[in-house]
Amino acid sequence: MHAAIPRSRARLVAKVVTEVFAPAVLLSALLLIVSVHTAGFARGIGSGLLAVLFVTGLPLVAVILMVRAGKVTDHHISNRRQRAPILCGSLVSIALGVWVLQLIDAPADLVRAVLSSVAGIVAVLVVNLVWKLSAHSAVAVFFSMIVLVLVGVPGVAALAIPVAVGWSRVVLGAHTVAQVLAGWLVGGGIALLYLTLVA
Known about the structure:
Elements lengths: L6 H14 L2 H46 L14 H21 L4 H21 L6 H17 L8 H12 L5 H22 L1
Helix pairs in contact: 1-6, 2-3, 2-4, 2-5, 3-4, 4-7, 5-6, 5-7, 6-7
């Protein structure tokens, strides 16, 4: 019988999974995938990068600066009480991004993906007022479902990401199983919203 993975090694793997598949990473990748998939590389990459700047880039820089200033505990914003102002600031950045994307006539599906991320942020914000839902898990499901629809069979591999992310969050003690499952439900709902908009 195989020995269980040592706890210290499991935590190390969990930390790597949490960082590699962090919400900002997955959402950035998704915006680029959607933009390039719908508009081709030449036109899509520029619009995608611009969307990343406003949706994840600027908010992440703000969080890092706040962590260094001691106003936020860590870049994952583990303290639920600190999430509301960060998420509200992200909404302002995204709203500006949507305006810029419309000015440059960015791909419509990219704008819809950005707006869907707004719906996700609002949902997570509301739930986090009373309960620490797993934003990592929500974004992981949102990412995997849309990638699966866009690329077909090869995208099946992306379905492993929410499982890995959920496991990592529980192992690290950041969330309970219930909070991970709730994140999956929210992420799945937002993905369905996006897919309905582009249908």
